[in-house]
TrEMBL record:
The lineage of its organism: Bacteria, Bacillati, Actinomycetota, Actinomycetes, Micrococcales. It comes from the Bacteria. This is DUF1643 domain-containing protein.
């Protein structure tokens, strides 16, 4: 297995984090916090657990927006187009044509910034080219959003997630 850590030169953005083997569970969250290789934060620890308990040999962490912030409300008020492009480039290189299982895991935090749903649409266009499968943890929230891993019970199952239906519901 291979550790992966792709970040900006000044470490203000993180694009990819993980330990990747043959069959990774790849989580798509809102934005990166403090996790680095060997030092997972609460979210990454939860993702590692879901991967292990569900038959995946490894895990990866991607985000809708790559700006590091311990609180999503600390993210840019408007998106930086260069960060969006760089994020999508890293995601495309990481997926590299593989049919991966992607964990939709942003919860209601996607509502934190108006541009986050547009970021998701760009990522979906990248992942669709490889026919990746989307899953979520347990039932969706009442709001229709997929659960955030650190706010889900460890014994909840991964369920198929209809990304097309979701994108229509949030009107992207």
């Amino acid at each position: 297995m291979t550790d992966i850590y792709e970040n900006s030169a000044d470490n203000s953005a993180r694009f990819v984090l993980g330990v990747v083997g043959e069959n990774p569970l790849v989580c798509v969250g809102v934005n990166p916090s403090t996790a680095i290789p060997g030092k997972p934060d609460r979210t990454v620890s939860a993702v590692m657990g879901f991967a292990s308990r569900n038959g995946f040999d490894s895990w990866g962490m991607l985000n809708l927006y790559p700006q590091r912030s311990t609180n999503p409300r600390g993210m840019h008020l408007t998106s930086a187009s260069e960060l969006k492009a760089e994020n999508e480039r890293h995601i495309a290189e990481f997926i590299n044509g593989r049919q991966l299982t992607l964990l939709a895991a942003w919860g209601e935090l996607i509502e934190t910034r108006p541009y986050l749903s547009e970021m998701l649409k760009g990522i979906v266009s990248v992942t669709d080219a490889s026919a990746c499968e989307w899953v979520s943890i347990g039932d969706l929230l009442r709001s229709g959003h997929p659960r955030h891993p650190s706010r889900a019970r460890h014994d909840w199952p991964l369920k198929s997630f209809d990304m097309r239906k979701y994108l229509r519901a949030i009107e992207v």
